[in-house]
């Protein structure tokens, strides 16, 4: 599988990475969550080349993660704002920050603390079950076919393929 075709996989992680998995993209989003909106601010904060920043911002706009909003008419200038789709990445960003704090701090401690404004306490991202509220642990969660893959599996089985054929058929269906 080539990186350019990763969005064709029947995998939510692969499809998400096709949008946010390139270098710089998560740092651009981090800054957007911190309130950065203008091209020059992103560039100054990140030290990224103008060309690369323009590419990344355009891709995020094309995928509906950011929206370009004019803030000046002469000359025409835009700022970038998170959309609902972009805001949906906040739990990912907070989880990534927590992982970095726990595993990449070199014993120096977390560079930032996050305070939950309604209660006033420092907080960390936690992943919990949407139904019972318990913490999610890899050994206690199992993936199962979702509606799309169930329908595909049923169709392939109707066509005479066995369940064991499905991974191979899917691989060939998404290969270039």
User: If strands are numbered along the chain, what order do they take across the biggest sheet?
Assistant: 1-2
Average pLDDT level: 88
What is the level 1 CATH name of the domain at 3-87?
Mainly Alpha
Taking pLDDT < 50 over at least 5 consecutive residues as the criterion, the unreliable ranges are none
Beta-strand percentage?
Answer: 5-15%
CATH topology value of the domain at 3-87: Arc Repressor Mutant, subunit A
Tell me the radius of gyration: 21 Å
Q: How many individual helices?
A: 8
Which key phrases capture this entry?
176 residues, mainly alpha, Arc Repressor Mutant, subunit A, two-stranded antiparallel sheet, two-stranded antiparallel ribbon, 8 helices
